[in-house]
Amino acid sequence: MPASPSDSPAVEVVGLVKRYDERAVVDGLDLVARRGEVTAVLGPNGAGKTTTIECCEGLRRPDGGTARVLGLDPLEDAHALRPRVGVMLQDGGLPTGVPAAQMLEHVARMYADPRPLDELGERLGLTSFARTTVRRLSGGQRQRLALAAAVVGRPEVAFLDEPSAGMDPQSRHAVWELVRELRDEGVAVVLTTHLMDEAEDLADHVVVVDHGRVIAQGTVRDLVSSADDRTLRLDATPGLDTGAMAAALATAAGAPAVTEAEAGSYTVVGQVGPATVADLTAWLAAQDVLATRVTVGRRTLEDVFLDLTGRQLR
Ligand SMILES: Nc1ncnc2c1ncn2[C@@H]1O[C@H](COP(=O)(O)OP(=O)(O)OP(=O)(O)O)[C@@H](O)[C@H]1O
């Protein structure tokens, strides 16, 4: 049976390449995003996330590979895609001299069946600054307005570049609720984020990008349980010998990886069980060190992300 249009991916990127000054910042990247799913693209600063999304939005011309959105070419078919795709850019990309409400009304008029503005304004908390010009909005207010502009036209695909960056917790939850609702309405939501809790909470599919390529992907559950390791977190005196700690735990925990991510805050990843905790406390007692906190839990998406992409700054 031929695939119906709704079975085909809403976004399909194959072997995408984008170079700046001979340097490939996107280097053979493949990505699929489906209708009714939230696809979260994660990666360190400079990994190529925004560039990839901008190729899908028709804002950049790829140097290789293809990007298709709703089966169309984002550049050649830009006119046909405009009413069907919502875009929230990282820097807002909004005109700055007009009041917020006026800007949104103007955007809404471009669509056949826009969302009711009062309802959208209410749920994203836009009413308190409706008459403020865009340039005078705070960062979080501008983000909320940009999100409203991206979804007011009832898009089939929404590209949201760091949608909740710089937002207070209340706004972030309002954004998450809206994203879930879009997904439930069948929208393909593609978002980038540095917030691992955002990805854990929202994403049906996570794509981890580094150096312009996909290095891991799957559901959050796939990614965190690909190893059955657990993480032990320890708060104690800063500067403990992590090598010696790893050696002390080696019998109980296999070959654990011990790191001091922040001063006095240690992470042990490995086959952590009751004997590991016993060996750790014995080792600490032998050093005359008091643990102020020991917790054991599953690996989080952040643990997986740091394992995949390393701890050095980009
Ligand atoms: N117009 C441009 N000219 C030259 N280099 C560029 C241009 N746009 C992006 N780059 C470079 O491409 C690389 C990828 O940038 P991109 O914005 O796609 O990364 P990102 O993964 O979205 O990062 P972040 O998490 O910091 O937003 C970076 O090294 C950036 O400096």
TrEMBL record:
SUPFAM superfamilies, per database record: P-loop containing nucleoside triphosphate hydrolases
SMART domains annotated for this entry?
AAA (SM00382)
Annotated membrane topology: Peripheral membrane protein
Main location per the UniProt record: membrane
Which ranges carry the ABC transporter domain?
11-236
InterPro entries for the chain: AAA+_ATPase, ABC_transporter-like_ATP-bd, ABC_transporter-like_CS, ABC_transporter_ATP-binding, P-loop_NTPase
Keywords from UniProt, A to Z, are: Antibiotic resistance, ATP-binding, Nucleotide-binding, Transport
The protein's GO terms of the molecular function aspect are: ATP binding
Q: Which Gene3D superfamilies match?
A: P-loop containing nucleotide triphosphate hydrolases
User: Is this entry keyworded ATP-binding?
Assistant: yes
* Annotated localization: Cell membrane
Q: Which Pfam families match?
A: ABC_tran
Q: Does the keyword Protease apply?
A: no
The family database entries (PANTHER family) matched by this protein are listed as: ABC TRANSPORTER ATP-BINDING PROTEIN
Under what name is this protein listed?
ABC transporter ATP-binding protein
- Please name the taxonomic classification of the source: Bacteria, Bacillati, Actinomycetota, Actinomycetes, Micrococcales
